[in-house]
Amino acid sequence: MSQEIIGSLKALKLHGMAANYPEVAAQARHTDFSPEAFLSQLLRAEQAERSVRSMAYQMGAARFPAHRDLAGFEFSQASVDEALVRTLHGGAFIEAAHNVVLIGGPGTGKTHLATAIGIEAIQRHGKRVRFFSTVELVNALELEKSQGKAGQLAHRLVYMDLGGAKRRSASTSRCKRRRAACPARWPRPCCCCCSPAWCSAPRAPA
C-alpha cells in the first residue's frame, strides 16, 4: 500500500510528499498523529522540497559566472562603501525599482559584488535574476534583430526581478552600438558592472 501511495504522489508531482511519506508514516504509527497533523507534516515537506528545487532552478537560470558572496569579499582591500554595499545586498533597491551601477577598474570587485547581490536576491528573497556579460547581451540582441525578432529579450526580462551585466573588454567601452544595450535602459531593476568610459548612457528614471 505504501508503494502505491508513493507512486500516486509521484504521478501527481508531489515529490516532497513522496520522499517523506515513509518517515512520516513511521512516525504516525508510533505516535498519536491526528489525520490533520499527518497531512500537515506532508504538506510542509512538499513546500520545503519545492522551495529547494525552485532555488536550484533560479540559481542555474541566473547564469552567474561563479558563486560569490559578501563573506568572501575583502572590504579592507577595496575602496568601496561597505555600509552601502550591505544595504544594497539587502535588496531594497529591487523593490524600489532602482538601478545600481558599479563603476571601477579591472579587478576591483564589481562582478563579485554584483553576483553576491544577485545570489542573495534569489536565496533570501526568492527573486528571479539573470546575469549577462556585455558580449553575451549584445550578441543576443543582434541575433534577435537579424532574425526579425527584436524585442523578445526585453520581453523576457520583464519577467525577471533583477538583471545584471558585466562589461568585459576595453574595446566595448568605445562601441556606440554596445551602448544601446546599456542595462540602465532595461525594463527591470539592474545591477550593472562597468567602467566610467562605458557607462555614459543616461540612467533610466527610478
Q: What do you see in this structure?
A:
The protein has a four-stranded parallel sheet with strand order 1-4-3-2. Residues 169-185 and 195-206 have low confidence and may be disordered. Helix 1 (2-11) packs antiparallel against helix 2 (15-30) and helix 3 runs antiparallel to helix 6 (110-125). The chain is of the alpha/beta class and 206 residues long. The longest helix is centred in the N-terminal third of the chain and has 28 residues, at 35-62. The protein has helices at 2-11, 15-30, 35-62, 82-89, 92-95, 110-125, 134-146, 152-157, 176-179, and strands spanning 100-103, 129-133, 162-166, 190-194.
Short structural summary:
The protein has 206 residues and is α/β, with parallel strands linked by helices.
Topology, please?
Elements: H1 2-11, H2 15-30, H3 35-62, H4 82-89, H5 92-95, E1 100-103, H6 110-125, E2 129-133, H7 134-146, H8 152-157, E3 162-166, H9 176-179, E4 190-194
Parallel strand pairs: 1-4, 2-3, 3-4
Distance between the termini: 58 Å
From the helix content, strand content and strand pairing, which structural class follows? alpha/beta
Which geometry do the CA atoms define? elongated
Average pLDDT, to the nearest integer?
82
> What letter string, H or E per element, gives the SSE order?
HHHHHEHEHHEHE
Helix content: 40-55%
Q: What is the radius of gyration?
A: 22 Å
What's the total count of β strands?
4
The number of helical runs is: 9
- Low-confidence regions: 169-185, 195-206
Main sheet specs:
4 strands, parallel
